[in-house]
Design goal:
- By secondary structure, the protein is of the alpha/beta class.
- 40% of the residues lie in helices and 16% in strands.
- It has a 7-stranded mixed sheet with strand order 11-10-9-8-6-7-12, sandwiched between helices. It has a 5-stranded parallel sheet with strand order 2-1-3-4-5, with helices on both faces.
- Strand 1 (33-37), helix 3 and strand 2 (65-69) form a beta-alpha-beta unit.
- Helix 4 (78-87) runs parallel beside helix 5, helix 6 (136-149) packs antiparallel against helix 11 and helix 8 crosses helix 9.
- The longest helix is centred in the middle third of the chain and has 17 residues, at 164-180.
Length: 346
């Protein structure tokens, strides 16, 4: 893939430093297409949709063919990957932790490079890259916000599983909340071991956490997040007041009925563009990718429900994190996360 000067001028301002590094060299691989695999449909305003939207936007900006295979579930994706490899795609992005065993196998079998999540130990130069992303800095800000907005002093964390990405955000949220108010109570509940699409289970579990006193829910799930949102919309806090919801990855503002306080937003375009760059330059499988507050690939959603003075306080904390004055530890291990909680239910 060679970017002409006109296209580069359009793309670079949009994606920042990651795309500005795309340089054509005589040794570069020519990339014409890539494929994205997602377990659920790209309509969840979260994990799946952000990936689909980023892939399509990047394909359009870079004039690449993008094949999206969505709604594949969490089972065996080897047949789909073999089919894509046979079609001649230059890269397969397997956007689910459940794919991180099958994808490297298919890469070795077909020679088509793959990108996986939650398995950095599986990286192989020129063949397997990992993008285990952590939104812990944004989750820290969400914890600060929740600690400032709670009436009960009890916050709920509801997760659809305990993959590394969710664990790091749960820990970041706990760190931010406790840094703001050391007396904050954290109720932690897991819907199931891989309940990413279980909206009914999410609603039931979230209602139980609210009944235990939480008036703000930090929810992490794909399709299951809609069940969490339903619970906060239909269940009053113990004081009879409103329950707030803090989401992750995407922006559900367009369907908010008055309970979406914020969201830890992820932008995956710079991540995918960096993968393509590495593939071009022959360094694929050697780098680590991240999302950060500093480059705005990680942001906290400002809703109309947040008082201006509270938002300003949160933004002051953001600047301190970027400046290195506040260190937010990324904790990927579930047991380490659980040790930070006041109460746990599975």
């Amino acid at each position: 893939m060679i970017l002409n000067s006109k296209r580069r001028a359009v793309v670079a301002p949009l994606l920042g430093a990651a795309l500005s590094l795309f340089v054509a060299t005589s040794a570069s691989a020519e990339i014409k297409s890539f494929a994205l695999l997602t377990p659920e449909q790209g309509t969840d305003f979260g994990w799946n949709q952000q990936a689909v939207d980023a892939a399509r936007a990047l394909g359009e900006k870079l004039d690449l063919e993008v094949i999206v295979a969505s709604g594949l579930g969490y089972g065996d994706v080897r047949p789909t990957m073999r089919e894509l490899a046979a079609e001649g795609v230059d890269l397969i992005i397997a956007h689910a932790s459940g794919y991180n065993t099958a994808a490297p196998e298919i890469a070795r079998e077909t020679g088509v490079p793959v990108a996986i999540v939650d398995a950095p130990q599986a990286k192989e130069q020129d063949l397997v890259a990992d993008y285990t992303l952590s939104g812990h800095e944004g989750a820290y800000l969400a914890g600060v916000l929740a600690a400032r907005m709670t009436r009960s002093g009890i916050l709920g964390i509801v997760v659809s599983g305990e993959p590394p990405a969710w664990n790091s955000q749960s820990a970041g949220f706990a760190q931010g909340a406790r840094a703001t108010d050391p007396e904050i109570e954290l109720r932690y509940s897991v819907i199931g071991p891989a309940a990413y699409a279980d909206a009914a289970g999410a609603r039931r579990v979230t209602e139980a956490v609210i009944a235990a006193g939480a008036d703000i829910i930090f929810g992490q799930g794909n399709g299951s997040s809609f069940g969490m949102l339903q619970a906060v919309e239909t269940t009053e806090a113990l004081d009879g007041g409103k329950v707030w919801f803090i989401d992750i990855i995407g922006d559900k503002s367009s369907i908010d009925s008055g309970h979406l306080l914020s969201s830890v937003l992820w932008n995956l375009e710079p991540v995918y563009s960096a993968m393509l760059q590495d593939l071009e330059e022959g360094t694929f499988g050697t780098a680590s990718y991240e999302i950060t507050l500093a480059d705005n690939s990680l942001q906290l959603l400002k809703s109309d429900h947040i008082p201006e003075e509270v938002w300003n306080e949160v933004m002051e904390v953001r600047e301190k994190i970027i400046a290195g004055e506040i260190q937010v530890e990324a904790e990927f291990d579930a047991q380490t996360v659980r040790a930070r909680m006041s109460a746990i239910s599975d």
